[in-house]
């Protein structure tokens, strides 16, 4: 439990999966939380009722929408960017539009959201991006474009950490390994294959990722910035 009373947080991509676990954790710890969704209105409405957080429809692929949402929800003490898509496959066959949309959601949106949030954030605020261990390690074929988007987050966090460091605003990437969500269900066909790369042979729980996000957003983490926080059961070890 972290005390987030009096803190304003925005979670981009909070209707399902890791983002929803972060909404639950932050709202449960007292933060005033807004979260976005694109397609899952029912899930977003249910989560808003459950947690008291505010749901806002905002497509991360739309730069103007992202910037407008951040501006409206601010000034923010905490920005978490969890919205993400996954397009895997042989690059010779992969739909180029799906690749470009993934780059829009996974790369362009985090950059513009982080910069917009920083315009009005108070000193000492926190920016947390959900990257992936695939930013460090891509141990199977078909993941080049996804890995590209997650490696991009590493450079972004390192650079923005320096841009905003004089205001004690920290910028960090959480890099989960396989985590049981709709994107990557533990009972899915790839599970045994993925567990083969891991020291702890199970999927992570979204709540475990939310716990790390709470730590990074909390008072003990003010000296952590420009860092990659890998939470992957040893997938990248
Ligand atoms: P899910 O597919 O379970 O959930 C994705 C969330 O992102 C949903 O709330 C979805 O909202 C939202 N989202 C997707 N596209 C958009 C968009 N265009 N605009 C706004 N919101 C959007 O995924 P996870 O929770 O598993 O993934 C969250 C993050 O964690 C992603 O960045 C992913 O790459 C990363 N990650 C996940 C891992 C895993 O194994 N699960 C491992 C490593 C990293 P809606 O449904 O309303 O559109």
Automatic annotation (TrEMBL):
<dbReference type="Pfam" id="PF13561">
    <property type="entry name" value="adh_short_C2"/>
</dbReference>
<protein>
    <submittedName>
        <fullName>Oxidoreductase</fullName>
    </submittedName>
</protein>
<dbReference type="InterPro" id="IPR002347">
    <property type="entry name" value="SDR_fam"/>
</dbReference>
<dbReference type="InterPro" id="IPR036291">
    <property type="entry name" value="NAD(P)-bd_dom_sf"/>
</dbReference>
<comment type="similarity">
    <text>Belongs to the short-chain dehydrogenases/reductases (SDR) family.</text>
</comment>
């Amino acid at each position: 439990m972290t005390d987030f009373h009096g803190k304003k947080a925005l979670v981009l991509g909070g209707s399902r999966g890791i983002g929803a676990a972060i909404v639950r954790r932050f709202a449960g710890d007292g933060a005033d939380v807004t979260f976005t969704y694109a397609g899952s209105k029912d899930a977003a409405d249910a989560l808003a009722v459950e947690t008291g957080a505010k749901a806002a429809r905002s497509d991360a692929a739309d730069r103007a929408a992202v910037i407008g949402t951040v501006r409206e929800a601010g000034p923010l003490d905490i920005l978490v960017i969890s919205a993400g898509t996954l397009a895997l496959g042989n690059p010779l066959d992969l739909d180029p539009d799906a690749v470009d949309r993934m780059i829009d959601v996974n790369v362009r949106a985090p950059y513009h959201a982080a910069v917009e949030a920083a315009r009005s954030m108070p000193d000492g605020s926190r920016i947390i991006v959900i990257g992936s261990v695939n930013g460090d390690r891509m141990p199977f074929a078909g993941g080049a474009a996804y890995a590209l988007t997650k490696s991009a987050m590493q450079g972004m966090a390192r650079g923005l950490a320096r841009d905003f460091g004089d205001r004690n605003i920290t910028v960090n990437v959480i890099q989960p390994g396989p985590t049981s969500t709709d994107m990557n269900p533990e009972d899915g066909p790839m599970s045994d294959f993925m567990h083969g790369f891991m020291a702890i042979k199970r999927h992570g729980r979204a709540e475990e990722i939310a716990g790390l996000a709470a730590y990074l957003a909390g008072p003990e983490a003010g000296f952590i910035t420009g860092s990659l926080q890998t939470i992957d059961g040893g997938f990248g070890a």
